[in-house]
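Go through the following before class.
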Amino acid sequence: MKIRSSMVMFQNPLGYLLTLSYCCTCLLLLLLPQVISSVHAHNCQHQHPKAHEVVHGVRIQLADVNDDDDHHGDHGEAAGFGRNGDASVHSVRRRSIIAEQPLRILLVYDDSVYRLEEEKFNLINDTVLPEAVQFWEQALMVRETRGVIRLNRKCDSTQVYVKNGHTHCIDQCKATTMCGEVQVPNEHLDVCRVCNATGQNCRIDSNTQPGDGIENADFVFYVSARQTQRCFKGLTVAYAAHCQQEAILDRPIAGHANLCPDSISTKPQELQTLISTVKHEILHALGFSVSLYAFFRDDEGNPRTPRKPDTGKPYLNEKLQIHQWSNETIRKVVRQNWSVRGGHVNKVIDMLVTPRVVAEVRSHFKCDKLEGAELEDQGGEGTALTHWEKRILENEAMTGTHTQSPVFSRITLALMEDSGWYRANYSMATPLTWGKDLGCAFAMRSCKDWIQMNHARGRSIHPFCSKVKQDPLQTECTDDRNSVALCNLIRHDYELPKAYQNFDSLHNVKDGEEGFYGGSVSLADHCPYIQEFTWRSKNIIVRGSHCRFIENNPKPEKNFALESYGEGSKCFDHSENMWEERSCHQTREWQHWGSGCYKYNCYDGRLHILVGNYSYKCSFPGQKLSIRIAANGWLHKGAIMCPSCHELCGAEFAAEGKQCRPGEEPDPLNKYPRDNLSCGANANSRHYSVAIISAPLIVALLLAAGLSN
């Protein structure tokens, strides 16, 4: 066991795999058919601990908490942990819970971590875990833990007694205390305290000694790297949960994560997704868990959920085997007249309604009547209720699937602050663009309503879309222009449930078959939206579609649209025509087009897009930049559409006290390169046989890369 001071399902394609081919002929164009096959979705399955699996009552000393703030009586209970039932026990004076100290997370490695392959160990040890832990240490503050933490030993029986604030097992403690896959070292454990079956003869087991304990930490995170059975479920990379809670405020004090060795990728373009997913897993252990909602407290330290007078804990939900929260934390709301294909249904929604969360979601959507933040209602136990609803918070990192550009928003930090255990540093939040300022019509009604209403008014239906994926494959840009993307609207092999049928009619779809069409992400209620994707070959990721990663650059011989990925690159739309490549002997046209990633500059009041070694000035929004450049032995012909200058350059110019200039006539075409092929005198008279060159690449939508926990 090693200590380091200072989880996760891989991006797994869902929906459709599209095999792209290009063909080269002698002055002819042949398009090979695309091969389409489906794969299955995998969602985040946070395996939250059941009530009997969590050890409660860990004794800690909080800074500035007087002894009389921490009352503990002598009680026992049949299942759980006895505590004084007097109401005064379950509230702590406000001054004792004010969070001023940055959260300190202590990483403790199981020996299995050191058995990882060297490249994977270095990635996890030097980058992934340090960055993920540092993020939450900077984002969350707690009341400082004074002295040492000694964790409680587990009991053989679920029945325990509490005497003078200490948990006592009946007759004996377990020989080992586990936290996930990791055995808690004896030096982290308190003595074993026992009573007989009637709660008498309570004593310290003389065969045990108190360990040295854990100093200078507020949360202990045990990490293992074992290829467990859970690792084989849906390409799981890691999973995490809490295992012990402290006695004063019920805050999680210890947790665990297991990394699945066979599923850890060391590809540079997947690093940020891996780090984000580990952050996601850590947050489940720190508080974002269906097993912890019932223990949330208000700003005064009072429980948001009433406690049982005999045990001091919330009532148990017998079906879920977790403690049941009150309506002050999560409330059911019925959406009447929820629009679906052919009519309306009533939709029951679980809303997280704590004060800061309510304020943040109302501000985000600009909807003052929104009751709270909607929780996921699909995915079964482990996904439902323990993540945000994917339909309205798509790329928030705490939704149940990873699909693209995950961010930890102010909404998630507000939830952690509303737990009563933390104060949030909101400067660590990343702006969430999905649904921003779209109003109550977006946040409180179905995506069918949103699409239909905006179509009728001639407005954009973004962030949703209604373009069915078909041949030829046409890409577009995400709203923030950070990625090349596709509309994930596909035909399913089965008719979708009535509640998730979102179209009365679709272009080029036969009447009566609309029920088979929907977005590929089931957790988003099958609402279709613009989404990043990856190119795969033989199920191995070749590159992604996010513009910022230089690793996503196409190989020179396949860079038909002269794209340039890397820092400072954004997505720009192509024109309605496919890009073309010509040599003296061949013409080839790629079956996918529509958008690409390019560098750009802002100067002289204009947006300038860089293509090849040339800079093209955008004189007005919607201008078509005609590209004709010779590179890599081919003449590349195509066009790029100019967005508005303000969209990409407005903020930069404003910071310099400047602004975008008004639109004007574009520069003449002869100002830009109009390259031609230089071929031998007899090149055009020679006869060449038709050659079909297939270079299959699989484009896999990141439709439900799950985060397992």
